[in-house]
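Narrative summary of target 7.
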Amino acid sequence: MQKSFLKIAILLFFGISAFNCAFAQYRNNFQATDSIMLAIPDQLTYSTQDIANFIDTHFDEDIEQLSAIFTWLTHNITYDLGEQRDYLPADELESYILETLKQRKGICQAYAEVFHDICQKLSIPSQVVSGFAIAEEDKTPVSHAWIAAYESSSWKLFDATFGAGYVMEGKYFKEIDSVYFNADPDFLIQSHYPFDPMWQLKFYPENMPGFLDTENIFPMDSTYFYYPDSIAAYMALSEPEKLVSEKRRILDYSEENPILSSYLDVLDHQIDYYIRTDAINIYNQCIENYNLAVSLFNEKLAERNPDKISDEKKQDQLEAIEALQTLMRQTNNMLSDVESDDEEFLMNIVTMKQAISALLKNVAQIEKSLRD
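Modeled conformation, tokenized:
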């Protein structure tokens, strides 16, 4: 991910001073929250679970908890000018978050991932939003990440990176700016453009060409888009389904761009990662099912003499056979649904199916002898 970002020079327009005054008054409502959060014991700030537990103990309302997260991040995490990183793979997120808390520094994805992880532990629905941000120096869009979180029956936007400080002439300056807490979508779109237009939180999302045209101060609105329903449907999806859905919207609303192309490559890698992970999880579950079936076979059916067992014992064995057959058929169906391009992994699946087939054949012979 691009390391360089600069806080946008806020566009001057009629009434902006009134907006700033109103927002300053809004943030004043959280002064007590800020005071408590800034007094959190240091030993409780090296894991998102400890931070979340502290927040949950001291604040009841979701908006207070979101304020507490924003306050702690903006005061305690410094932007890392030295970090060079593309978008982070899903399997590295946990260690990356821990390293961010340990080092007390990171780039925009670090701020966003820590924010998101604390939200998850507080049961606040949230989403890391990836997109463009416009730098102040040359107005060149760079890759960036921020947060959307659900509070009081609506989604809201937060950028702890911009809220923590800014870069000027290659130097980082710590300056808390609460305008990026629960930022107004119409304000944020002036400097932030999510790759997935759904996260603009606008019924008429701005188009990407208009945003990237730095001479165009107010990009043209597109067609009407009822984003609340789209987000609700999106949040109900599995992780790989979310990625596929996001990619589809990006392609529908975007134009070719090197930064965007890089992000689409990341989405493809993330989709492959979740597909591989799901396949491995399914395969491991199938192994457990098979071992369970073998145990059931050994316990109920391995030693038998159908001519000398009681009717009660015979019925017990028939019920065990039915349970074993049902489990193995379900397991076979699970294996058939596995997707993978790994030849060795696919051979393991073939071997497992052969083992299941042999077990079912053996069981069928025992069933026949019991029923004859």
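The radius of gyration is 28 Å.
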